[in-house]
From TrEMBL:
One Pfam family in the UniProt entry: adh_short_C2
Listed GO MF terms: enoyl-[acyl-carrier-protein] reductase (NADH) activity
Catalytic-site annotation from UniProt: Y150, Y160
Gene3D superfamilies tied to this protein: NAD(P)-binding Rossmann-like Domain
Residues involved in NAD(+) binding: G15, S21, I22, I95, K167
Annotated GO biological process: fatty acid biosynthetic process
Enzyme class: oxidoreductase
Catalytic activity: a 2,3-saturated acyl-[ACP] + NAD(+) = a (2E)-enoyl-[ACP] + NADH + H(+)
Keywords, alphabetical: Fatty acid biosynthesis, Fatty acid metabolism, Lipid biosynthesis, Lipid metabolism, NAD, Oxidoreductase
Keyword Disulfide bond among record annotations: no
Domain of life, per lineage: Bacteria
Protein name: Enoyl-[acyl-carrier-protein] reductase [NADH]
Recorded metabolic or biological pathway in which this protein acts: Lipid metabolism; fatty acid biosynthesis
Length: 270
């Protein structure tokens, strides 16, 4: 159901790789809610061309940008404002990648070049996006900037490896830049800490199916789906959440507040 929550708003959505991506669902919901936006992803990720289907469905243009490249981001923000005919109201950073995870390195045998790449792609890019937006004065007042995080920023999950440090840094950047952007332009900056979700990035983490099921059994409401996450993102882009900023917002069906659940006890007693 649509509520016109984003009528007249202009945005940039990073990270729609395929129809499993959280960013894909956010784009579909943002379109339903009346937003206009551009879609962007790393040039390499566009080889499959899937993003063009989404662009057509949403009447959006696609601008390639590697989120680690300040030059690409400058071009993206300039072009997005030209295409959309004004400043930006919302930005979704839905980007994560660890070469160490992808190549199956254990936490005791990390490649440090790759570790830096993990941090650059998955965390520092969030700062780069905001610094470019600030320097171009690209954000409208009361705009909203959002990135996606995971509870491994606070608790250890062995297979999440160096992505845990990337998420801790991402959440820290949201706080620091949130303070700055709030003062400068009344722009809010938050992260959503999302349940395990069956996407390309999610299922790339070792043991994903086990911790997906574990989290589902621990959470009184069950795991939050990508569609649920998209709904939450829409509320944070809307004018209904204008004073929410510098927060890491848990969107996890209750997982983070549970010690143990009956479902897990039953399973362990078998
Ligand atoms: P996904 O694989 O569909 O999306 C990840 C995106 O990052 C892809 O579109 C990829 O092309 C993009 N990307 C990678 N390197 C890039 C670069 N250099 N420049 C620009 N884009 C780049 O997976 P998903 O799950 O939708 O991931 C979105 C976000 O949600 C990520 O931050 C992820 O860590 C986060 N998240 C995912 C969870 C899950 O279980 N799937 C749980 C909690 C958070």
């Amino acid at each position: 159901m649509a509520y016109n929550l984003l009528q007249g708003k202009k945005g940039i959505i990073f990270g729609a790789l395929n129809d499993k991506s959280i960013a894909w669902k956010v784009a579909q919901r943002a379109h339903e809610e009346g937003a206009q936006f551009v879609l962007t992803n790393a040039p390499l990720a566009m080889r499959m061309g899937e993003i063009n289907k989404l662009a057509e469905e949403c009447g959006a243009q696609v601008i390639p940008a590697d989120a680690t490249s300040v030059e690409d981001l400058q071009n993206l923000f300039t072009q997005a404002q030209e295409i959309l005919g004004g400043k930006i109201d919302f930005v979704l950073h839905s980007i994560g990648m660890s070469p160490n995870v992808r190549k199956g390195k254990t936490y005791g045998d990390l490649n440090y070049e790759w570790f830096l790449k993990t941090l650059d792609i998955s965390a520092l890019s969030f700062h780069k996006v905001m610094q470019v937006a600030e320097k171009q004065d690209a954000m409208n007042e009361w705009g909203s900037i959002l990135a996606l995080s995971y509870i491994a920023a606070q608790r250890s999950f062995p297979d999440y490896s160096d992505m845990a440090q990337a998420k801790a840094m991402l959440e820290s950047i949201a706080r620091s830049y949130g303070q700055r952007f709030g003062k400068l332009k009344k722009v809010r900056v938050n992260t959503i800490s999302q349940s395990p979700t069956k996407t390309t990035a999610g299922t790339g983490v070792g043991g994903f199916d086990a911790f997906f099921d574990y989290a589902d059994k621990m959470s009184p409401l069950g795991n939050a789906s990508a569609e649920d996450c998209a709904n939450y993102c829409i509320t944070l882009f809307s004018d209904l959440t204008r004073l929410v900023t510098m927060q890491n917002l848990l969107h996890d069906g209750g997982f983070s507040s549970v010690g143990i659940s009956e479902d897990i006890v039953t399973q362990m007693s078998k």
